[in-house]
Amino acid sequence: MFVLDDLLFRPLIGIVDTLHSLALQELYDVEALEDERKENRLLYELGERSEEEYLDRKETIEAELELAREVREQFASGRVEVKR
Amino acid sequence: MSNSNRYVYGIVNTADTGNIEFETDAVAGADRVYTVTHRRLGAVVSNIDTTDPEETDEDAQRHDDVLREIMDYDGGKTIVPMQFGMAFENDRTLKNVLRGARPAFRRAMSDIEGRIELGLKLVTQEDGSVDRDEVEDAVSDELDPIAAQAVQNDRFSDRLVLNRSYLVDEDERESFDEAISRLEDRYGDELLVQYTGPFAPYSFVNVEIGAQSQ
Questions:
Q1: Among partner residues A38, A45, A48, which is closest to B126 by beta-carbon distance?
Q2: InterPro entries under this entry (chain A) (predicted)?
């Protein structure tokens, strides 16, 4: 049974790992967050966002960016473990 | 903490400008900018305590404001602008860079002399839509004949229909402003228009600086 389980499930686990890694990378997409930061600034400058909305959003994006950069560094160094 | 590092705004020809020095709100809390020279090239700098400054909105704005002050300094000066974040260990490393990139700086200076950079962004209204190709063609028809050069910038938002920078002779500034007004009249109901500048021509100089921070 061990051999059968191994043959059936190992490829599936590999795919899940890959999908999980891709999802993490998308979640911590530094470029997308940088674009969002620029968009936030632009919409504030154009008067579509109030100063309060702009500053709130800016704070959130900058926190997400910091986290995303850390995660990216860990990915690059191979220190991220995908846990099941 | 030491302030012996040098943050660079841009490069001037000191044969034309002399040594630039003035007090201002500079990057990272500095309050004075001045020139570090090598032969006729001068780097306009302020003191900083890092070679890797963080790009905050406030400091990016200060960088820009200092460049504009230099462009207006003593009747107007040509400066080859640096992008945000160029900082060097000390005067010696900076002078080495000036020496190494001297031909490139001189070429860049001659390319932008008497010219300014102007920016145009067109943005859809929230939930709005527009024929993007038609708008781009109309903008090109109006502005390209007046500008010396144009570049397409990053479209960082789905709502950006167009994001361009133009290099414009100072003598053509009025014609360019009039062309922008015509575009505003034509598209002002469907699009938000952001017309910015004048800036030092960042988008039109391409000087590679080796060993930037060391």
A1: A48
A2: Gas_vesic_GvpG_halobact (IPR054797), GvpG (IPR007804)
For chain B, what are the domain ranges? 5-113, 115-202
- DSSP character at residue A5: H
**Residue owning tokens 């960088």:** B63
CB-count burial class (<10 Å; 0-12, 13-18, 19+) for A61: buried
Q: Which of B57, B157, B194 sits opposite A39 (nearest CB)?
A: B157
Query: B196: nearest CA in chain A?
Result: A45
What residues contact A41, with CB distance under 8 A and at least 6 apart?
A: A54, A58, B57
Task: Indicate whether A84 pLDDT > 60.
Answer: no
Paired tokens of B64: 């820009």
Which tokens go with B125? 């209204």
Give the ipTM.
Answer: 0.77
Contact B156 A45 (CB under 8 A): no
Under 8 Å between Cβ of B88 and B3: no
First-to-last C-alpha distance (Å) of chain A: 22
Site from A35, A37, A51, A69 to mutate, B interface, most B CB atoms within 10 angstroms: A35
Residue B52 forms contact with A (CB below 8 Å): no
CATH domain B115-202 topology: Alpha-Beta Plaits (3.30.70)
Kindly report whether the global pTM for this prediction surpasses the value 0.90: no
Segment B3-18, tens digit of pLDDT: 789 999 999 999 888 8
Continuous segment of H or E residues that includes residue B195 = strand B191-199
pLDDT tens-digit series, residues A13-50: 677 777 666 666 666 789 999 999 999 999 999 999 99
CA distance A63 to chain B (A): 13
Q: Which among B154, B156, B192 has CB closest to A46?
A: B192
